[in-house]
Batch of 3 targets.
Target 1
Amino acid sequence: MLRWLRNRFLTGVVVAAPIGITFWLIYSFVTFVDQVIKPLVPSRYNPESYLPFAIPGMGLLIAVLGLTLLGALAANIFGRSLLDLGERVLNSVPLIRNIYAALKQIVETVFQGQQNSFKEVVLVEYPMAGSYAVAFVASTGRGVIRSVVGQGDDVIGVFIPTTPNPTSGFLLFVPRAKAIPLDLSVEEAAKLIISFGMVTPDRLPDGAIPQAEPGKAGAGLMPDDSSDASTSDPEPTDPKPS
């Protein structure tokens, strides 16, 4: 009876925990935005000033409307002129211009899809030969990076996230030939990393265990049929008749 109660309790925890954590994260995000945006709205324009109760998500709604209006303003000639003027002012400040340029490039890359960032999952040898880490292809190596790392061959920049927090990690540049592509989506790879490897895909990705060449890193991980054939005993031949 105690074992049955324990199993049912654990089953309930498994079912309720993802739902509860998801709603808690949504509630925390909405509450944070409300606390930041609502004080910026004048009381005469705030509907909560005329209502006897607070409206959850009002700050988030105002933020969405404000960003939409800002995007519409930036799409016309007058808005673009103001943005150009503001960028010229920021670029004239020594420290601010570096921060602004880096943040602008990152945001444009993520939201406008200028590059195929985080669209491919690969395996790379890290942190030592023979051990592989899951990585996301973030960019393509160009210029001096390609000439130094790839010796003229294709070079990719991969992001290796840490476990269980995938927002931090390492950026490595490796030759394309040394990256093993995985038949995994970004979501499946993220689940694999966040869960400490406990949530794995049902299928074995093609090329997940590559055939290593002799003399290279990872050689000997896969059996070589040719070596077996060379070391096996030769088949006996029938003696010639006298």
Target 2
Amino acid sequence: MRNTAKKAFALAVGIAATLAAFGGQAHSAPMPPDPGGVTPQVVGGTQAAKGEFPWMVRLSMGCGGAMYTEQLVLTAAHCVNSTGNNTSITATYGVADLQDTSAIKRTSSYVHRSPTYGTSTGGDWALIKLSSPITGASLLPIATTNAYNNGVFDVAGWGATREGGSQSRYLMKAKVDFIDDTTCKNADPYYRDLIFSAEICAGDLANGGVDTCQGDSGGPMFRRDSAGQWIQVGIVSHGNGCARPSNPGVYTEVSTFAAAIKAAADNLGGTPTPPGKTFENGTDVSIPDAGAAVYSNIAVSGLTGNAPSTLKVTVDIKHSWSGDLVIDLVAPDGSTYRLKNSSSSSTPNVNTTYTVNASSELANGTWRLKVQDVYSQDTGYIDIWKLTF
């Protein structure tokens, strides 16, 4: 956790002994502009724009986090007390200014705290399940290999902008440099127990001045992957003060725990499927006039967990009287989702994309488009349809 020397919060969440021994800190985020007119900075950072890091979450206990799924927030283990039912945490999403009235808020329903946290294995991570999903929330994928544990990282949070400072109203951002394990361990006696396989260091070793700080705990350290997309490589964990020379920030090495995080997410309600994955069927299926329903199937495989709450169903049906048609999506378990009712519309053809909340359905399996012509005199056929997860 990210706090300055001997912070009360660090003491409360279970790593007080380690931090107190070395004058440590648990990290947090920036503070509001001071009366002198100096713009506050995430200890060396700048203010982030609304929507710049849309997956960022502020947690009511004074920590940060990132949306892992539409209903799960990834944060630090030291930010929570234990695994189990928990309705005491409020998550704020969708804003950079915490006083922005457009903020989306959810209370927690359950917490999963890493069972290896506080052991020689390390593992300062936790998942917070929200009382209901934030439909369409932006998600931050996590690194599953150490390939991105290098270079320059981005950090963001609502913590203090100086050691011992107050929390920030505004989301702040900064860039921090990767520091190898051996250099980090030798930087100061504080780091002598650094767990090479579980922790990663970052900051300006020579000069200090740039760092996460108290209140940034649990927030993500992230960078662009090989495809240019944001990926989370670290979780703000702890450090010796804020932005001191020769005292970098310490972050949970996310890739080490990626499999454990995914397993916990599966138990809590499923991991996200790869965004934008599309399956389609382009085989024509004739629709009989005022006849029985016809079906067109799509076999989905290779995805993980449940379908998204924003499953896209793209339908292209050629028909001389679109109002004759009733269209349903049938999930692999037989559940039916109505896409279109019959109507008096004489407009020809149906060429549109429907959005279905299919988050209760397993993604993999055979999905079916069911189409029925319920009036006489007009005919047509299913030309092509697609599912985009």
Target 3
Amino acid sequence: MGIRYLTAGESHGPQLTTIIEGLPAGMPLVAEDINTELARRQKGYGRGRRMEIEKDMVEITSGVRHGQTLGSPIALVVKNNDWKHWTKIMGIEPLQEVEEEEIKRKVTRARPGHADLNGALKYGHRDMRNVLERSSARETTVRVAAGSVAKKLLSLVGVEVVAHVVEIGGKKANPLHHLSFKEIKEQAEASPVRCIDSNAEKAMIAAIDEAKKNGDSIGGVVEVIATGMPTGVGSYVHYDRKLDAKLAAAIVSINAFKGVEFGIGFEAARKPGSEVHDEIVWDDEWGYSRKTNRLGGFEGGMTTGMPIIVRGVMKPIPTLYKPLMSVDIETKEPFAASIERSDSCAVPAAAVVAENVVAWELANALVEQFYSDRFDTFVKEINEQREFAREF
């Protein structure tokens, strides 16, 4: 059946919640596994003041006992510390009287690039705060929480996932193919922009500073690498079970992500087939592998056993301190779009989100394909598949 999760909560509401269903029973899990990832999400050069207010910590409220999953749904809660300043504006109970603060905080000016206007038209909201509070990158907090649980599962079956930034504001990192997975992880973690090229890192920081000075924002490209996935995970039989398709959907489901590619990606359109496809080799120790990895670890919607390489394109954050023009939905008059507290660049943080949504899809694919009621049996089946592929 796989695993699934649902998130709930508004940006300035009392808390964010996710409920995870389908994890094997008997898997080790503690709050620190999740809090480590939540802290990583809040780092990164170019973040705004919200990161100074919120220090995200998770509370596991069900599905785990004495450090092990029970097989029942797991509920994770992250409290919003800023809620105390928004209790009147975002309160649950009906308002008895309209106060000045509520009037001041009502949003009727749709911001270009946001969900504001489309969401208002969809649900009939005259106050677009009802839209923007949910269509907020704040929701990725609990997506990372869910992803961190998936990362824990993956790590216990020999699968590792890491993300790094390859471009911000047109400043590109040079490919560093000679680095090991461990080196990429360490260098990305040490960089304020999660870039493993020190020269490009300086240029990216300068670009973020320039954007902030101009009241503007910039986007970029993140790359996620996963190693250790067994061969043949996914499907060539059904379109909706192709694992690369699920990863593509996961990447573009992240706020502000507008494109995705695997391996050499769009460069494949400019090369002949002899420079795109990966030749197959075999040896006694590893079994089947590829001479190259231009297809990013996938053929026919299934894993090849090579590292999975997927990149996502994040557009500039649309909340600008030199706001674009829009229309007030009450008066229909043109206005400069309203400003909510925002970042000038969130690409480094988005890399952590991308890392976790990829981890979720990989974990889900494994749970779907292998017996997963009990964690010990789950691990045994995955290892048996690896051995089968090696000896085939």
